[in-house]
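Field reference: sequence -> structure
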Amino acid sequence: MEVNGKKISVIGAKRSGMAVAGLLAAKGARVYVSEIGQLSDDEKSLLSGLGIEYEDGGHTGRLCDADLAVVSPGIPRESDVVRMVLEKRIPLFSEIEAASWFCRARMAGITGTDGKTTTATLLHRIAEAEGNARGYRAVSAGNIGVPFSSVVASLAPDDLAVIELSSYQLEGCTSFHPAVSVITNITPDHLDRYHGDIREYAEAKYRICRQQKAPDALCYNIDDPLLRDHFGDGAGAYPFRLIPFGIGADAVRYASEEGFSFEEGMILHWQGGASYPVIAGDEFLKNSFRGRHNIYNALAAAAAAFSLGIDRDAVRTALSGFAGVEHRQEFVRSFNGIDWINDSKATNVNALLQALNAVPGRLVLIAGGRDKGNDYSLLADVVRSKVAAIIAIGESKEKLCRAFEGVTQTLSAETLEEAVELAGNAAGRGDTVLFSPGCASFDMFANFEERGMLFKHLIQGLTS
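Structure field:
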């Protein structure tokens, strides 16, 4: 899209908002930034230096003097400011969409409820392994932490942008067109934003492949019921290639001409009814990278890499050397015979369930935060079988204690520091303390990273 000379309002001035404002201004747009909170002196100085006008402390009608608007992903469509823009019939886009207008490089988009950060990180590592040898650059951006707008201008046509995408970011995408897209899974999450309707949430995820066509590819988890029902019988019904992946899934062999499966301890690449080995599980399932969910992440990354034409050696090199993602089932230390695991990135029940299943043996669980309409009954069986105690924190602590009353011992803590102390008292030698909140962090922390960093700091400081 041509933006030179157009008036563009950017709603929200956090990382992605500041990045896209700078990008659009550099492309000749007349940018106006509107932030409901207070901008720092440094942020004001940066915007002024770029010739960007702004308002903070609230949104006013001034932002509606625009040809189009870009909204930060954390601002819901039902908010007053978004309604005001839409009522004026001003086209509204996401930061990802706006950045993609200026992307000359290949794009790979990764979405899903769980596993998207790990899959995106894996694919980036794989592409780096090949790019270093072949002379192209691979970057990782999007929901993973680096705004796409901050890197897109530096990319050349042969480069690759691996972009992690939340449903919020995809809501505002209309022309975003990845060469390869991945949907890891779809389980209940953010249902407070999607009116309690998982189908509405899923439709936001499906936007990732809306603009794809031949020879583009969509890699999807065929073991996920929603994805299987939506794409499983779609070979030939879509203008792009469908590449399913699954664990021991016979459907992989028949759902399309190509697929990836994990069988008998090996990732297999299926083509034309024949299978070819990619990598053995014991080469990559180790340390902090273990569990059934990480087999799916490895399958997704391998499927995407092959779809991009990346060679098998690069896939094997990256997978075999991967030690996991910070804050996702991250081993912190052993102390007094107890293993401490940081899984702060678990912000929904499914991610928490994955962590509970992945940790061997008896454990004490620290969980809680801002509830997103969670159904904790899904955890009852595994909690009953292996969780000695739950230490509940945050806004959801009372709900958690009620949910597991009579299932296991439940305690509540006012702070994470208190939770760590209680967990240490409840755990014995040979046990694991798992910090896997299963909730958003915003009741007590700025984000899951801050939450995880505090937990690690507390554990590293244990002395008795």
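Note: The CA atoms of residues 97 and 173 lie 5 Å apart.
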